[in-house]
UniProtKB/TrEMBL annotation, chains A, B, C, D:
Family statement drawn from the similarity comment of this UniProt entry: Belongs to the ThiG family.
HAMAP family documented for this protein: ThiG
Protein name in UniProt: Thiazole synthase
Segments forming domain Thiazole synthase ThiG: 3-247
Subunit field text: Homotetramer. Forms heterodimers with either ThiH or ThiS.
Keywords from the UniProt entry: Cytoplasm, Schiff base, Thiamine biosynthesis, Transferase
Pathway linked to the protein: Cofactor biosynthesis; thiamine diphosphate biosynthesis
Organism (species): Aquimixticola soesokkakensis
Length: 255, 255, 255, 255
C-alpha cells in the first residue's frame, strides 16, 4: 500500500489506546508487523507514561500517524492537528471530527471542512469517514488522497455492517487507497474487509480489548494477509445450486 | 489437531478434485501446508494421471484420506471404502453418503448406518455430515471419533450458512475434533469457522476453482491460522453501543 | 392450505402454552383467526384449568392438533399420541421427538420411526422436523403428507436461521404442504417464511411471550397474509446496482 | 402518523413511477390504502397521460407529495420544488438531491443546503436522506420536521441494508417522524422497518415492478400494519439458547 508517496510494508495500522499495559502495546505492535500506529496527543503530554511510550515507538520503527480523536468541532480538530504536527514532527494527520458522543460517528460536514483547511495548510490528511460515497468525493476534492471509511461504530466489534456500501466505494474510487477504520472485531472481519479489495485496515479495540492482545495482533496480521491474498487470487463465485466438488465415481469405472 | 491418535501439523485439509492441472494441485498442496489430502478412488484407477498423481502425493508428505464421494447408498459407500483401504493402505476413510443429487447433501440415515458398519470393520471414519447435533451424537455412538459438519452445500462457496448450529455443536461436543467440510469460499469463511472453535477445515472447490489456486491455497492457510489464533486470543465482545477506542482528549489537559 | 383433505381457512397455527392467562390465550386465538391450535395432553389432564380451556377452544371453532411436546423417545411419543387420540378424538397428531434437552431440536431418527408407526396406525402425522431435505423425504415415505420444518430452535425467536435450506425444501417438495414451525419471533419473520412459498406457520412463544399477546396475534395474522400475498404477487428481483424508481426529470422537458 | 400537523390515516406512502399502466397505478393506490402519493413534475407536464393521471389522483383522495426526483444540484432541486408548489398547490416537497448517478444516493451536503433554502421559503420539506445520524440532525436544524432515511439504494429491492444505523436513528430522534424511503422489496422488508419503530415507509419499485402491482400493494399495506402492530405489541427477546415453548409433559403426570 502506498499512501502520500510512502510505500508501507504492511496493510495493517494499529491504534495505541486501551491496552492493559505498555508491554502489551509494545508486544502487539511487534506481533502485528504494522507499518503505522495512530497516536493521540495525550500520549505525549500526559503523566509519566509518555516518555516510555515514545522510546518504545522509536524502537519498533513504526511510523506515527497522529489523530484528532475526541474532537467534536472543526476548530478543535484543526487546533489539535497543528499541535500534533509540532509534537510529532509529521504532516500526517488522521482526522476525526466526531458528530455524536455515543456512537462516535463522524460529522461528515465538519470532516470535509476541516480536511480542506488542513490540506491547504500542507497536511496529508487521513479522514475517518462513513461509507458514504458522496462524502468520499468531497474529501478527495478537499485534498485528501486516502479515505478511511468505517466498518461499524468505533469500539463496537460488529465487523462490516454494510459491506455493499464499502463495495460501492471500492468500485467508485478505483485508484484511491481505502483503509477500513473502526468496528472490526475478529480476524474474519479483517479478512473480509481485504477481500472487498480494500487496501488496509486500522484496528484498535479489537486488539487492545482481546484477552491476549499480543496474540490477537498476530492473528490480525495473518488475517489481513489472508484476505489480501484471497482477493488477488480471484475467489470462486458463490453458487446458489450446489455442484459436486469431487467428480462422481461410478463403481463400474473401477472394474 | 489430533485425530485418531495422529497429531496433525496443520488445521487444513485439502480435496484434490477439479484443479486445472496436476501442477496446480501440487502447488496448492505445498502452498497450503496441509497435513491431509482427500482422494477418491478414480484418481488411482482412471487413465494416465493416476501414477503422476500418486508420486506427487508421496513427495508432498501429505497423509491420504480416501473418500467415498459420489456414493448414494450404504452398500456403495461400504464397498468403496473397502476398495479404498486396499488401494491406499489406510484405515482412514472420509465417509460420504449422498442423499440428494443436486445439493449433494448427506443422507444422515445412510451415513450413520455405514459409519457403524465401517467402524466395526476397523475403519477410522471421518463422516461428512450436516450441522445436526443429534446426528452427530449417533455418529459418535457408531464409533466415529471426529465429525465433519458442512458449512454449506458442497461447491457452493456460500460460507457458513448456519453459524449458530455450528456453535451449538461446538459447545456440545467439547472434546471431539470438529472439521468444517464443504461450502467455504473465501479466506474469511475459513477464519470464521476457526473462530467458532472448530478444529479444522477441509477445502476443495474454494481452492481448485479460484483464479489462482496456488495463491488461494496460501491465503486459506493464513486464514486458518488467523482464525485459530483469534479464537485462542479471546476476542472482544460485540457491543451494541459504541465506545471510544481512543480516550477523549480534552485540550485543557494539553496546556 | 389443504392438509389431509381438510381445507383450512387460515395459514396460521397457534400453540397454546405459556400465555399469561386463559383470557390472553382466548383473545390471541380469536385475534389470530387461526384455523388450528396445538395442544398438549397436560392441558386436558392437569389441574383446574383444563375444563375452562376446553370449553373456550370449542367456542373459538379452532381445530385441535394435539402434540407430543416433551417426548424424548419413540415409545414415549407413540404412547402420548395414542392417549391424545382418545382424549381429543382426532387422528391428527403433531409429532415431536426431541433429541436434545437444551435446544429441543428434533431427533430425526426417532421422528421418522415414530411417524411410520403412527401413520400405519391410522394417524395423520404433522412431523416437527429440521430443514433437512433427506429427512423430509423419509417422513413422506413413512406416510406423512405435510412437513413442519423449523425456522430456528423452539422458543428462540431468532427467525429464519437458514432460509436457503428452507428454499431448497420448497423447490424439492413442490406439492407438499410445508409449515414453518418454531423459532419465529416477529411479524417480519412470519412474512419472510411465507415469501419463501411456505404454506403456513405455527407460532407459540412469539405470541405468548409478547408484551401484548392478543395484539401480537393480530399482527402475526396480518403478516402471514402479507407474506403469502407478496409471494403470489411475484416480487421484484433484488438488484445489485441501483436504478431510478422515478424517471429522471429534465428541466428542459418542463418548458 | 402525524407530519407537519397533518394526521395521516396510513403509514404507507406510494410512488407513482414505473407502473405498467395507469390502471395498475390506480389499482395499487386503492389497494394500498395509502394516504400520500409522491409525484414528479413530468407527470403533470408531459404528454397526454397527465390529465387522466391527475383526475385519477383526485378520485383516490390521496394527498400529493411532489418530489424533486432526478435533481443533481441544489439549484435544480430548489427550482423544481418551486415549480412543483405552483403546479400542485402544496407546500409539501419530497426533497431529493442526488449525488451519484448509478446508485441515486443522496448528496447530503446539497440536501441540507436545499432543505434550508426551501424551509426558509415556507416549504414543508420531506428530505430523502441516508441513515447518517449527524446528517439527520442538520436536516432538523435546517427546518425539516420529518426524515426519510433510505433502507437501501433506490430501486434495489435489497431491504434494510443497515438496520443498526436505522435503530440508532430511531433511538436518537425519539419525537421525529421517520419514514423509510427506498430499497425495500418485499412485505417482510416493510414489516421489519416498522418493527424498528419507524413511522412509515415509502414504496415505489417494489410495487410497480412486482408481477402483480395491485396485489403487491395490498400485501405491503398488510405488512406495514403487521410491523407496526408487532412493534407496539412488544416482541419477545431473541434468545441464544432455546427454551421449551410447550412445558415438558411427564407421562407420570397423566396417570
Amino acid at each position: 500500500m502506498k499512501v502520500y508517496d510512502i510505500e508501507l510494508h504492511s496493510n495493517l495500522m494499529l491504534g495505541t489506546a486501551q491496552y492493559p499495559s505498555l508491554a502489551h502495546l509494545t508486544g502487539a505492535i511487534r506481533a502485528s508487523g504494522c507499518a503505522v500506529v495512530t497516536v493521540s496527543l495525550r500520549r505525549e503530554t500526559a503523566d509519566g507514561t509518555g516518555a516510555g511510550f515514545w522510546d518504545m515507538l522509536r524502537q519498533t520503527g513504526a511510523r506515527v500517524l497522529p489523530n484528532t480523536a475526541g474532537c467534536h468541532s472543526v476548530q478543535e480538530a484543526v487546533t489539535t492537528a497543528r499541535m500534533a504536527r509540532e509534537v510529532f514532527e509529521t504532516d500526517w494527520i488522521k482526522l476525526e471530527v466526531i458528530g455524536h458522543a455515543d456512537s462516535l460517528q463522524p460529522d461528515v460536514f465538519g470532516l470535509v471542512e476541516a480536511a480542506g483547511i488542513l490540506a491547504a495548510d500542507g497536511f496529508q490528511v487521513f479522514p475517518y469517514t462513513t461509507d458514504d460515497l458522496v462524502v468520499g468525493e468531497k474529501l478527495l476534492a478537499a485534498g485528501c488522497e486516502v479515505l478511511m471509511p468505517w466498518g461499524a461504530p468505533i469500539g463496537s466489534g460488529q465487523g462490516l455492517r454494510n459491506p455493499d456500501a464499502l463495495r460501492t466505494m471500492r468500485a467508485h474510487f478505483a485508484g484511491v487507497p481505502l483503509i477500513v477504520d473502526a468496528g472490526l472485531g475478529r480476524p474474519s472481519d479483517a479478512a473480509a474487509a481485504m477481500e472487498l479489495g480494500m487496501d488496509g485496515v486500522l484496528l484498535n479495540s479489537a486488539v487492545a480489548n482481546a484477552g491476549d492482545p499480543v496474540a490477537m495482533a498476530r492473528a490480525m496480521a495473518l488475517a489481513v494477509q489472508a484476505g489480501r491474498a484471497g482477493f488477488l487470487a480471484d475467489p470462486m463465485e458463490r453458487r446458489d445450486m450446489a455442484v459436486p466438488s469431487t467428480p462422481v465415481l461410478g463403481l463400474a469405472e473401477l472394474m
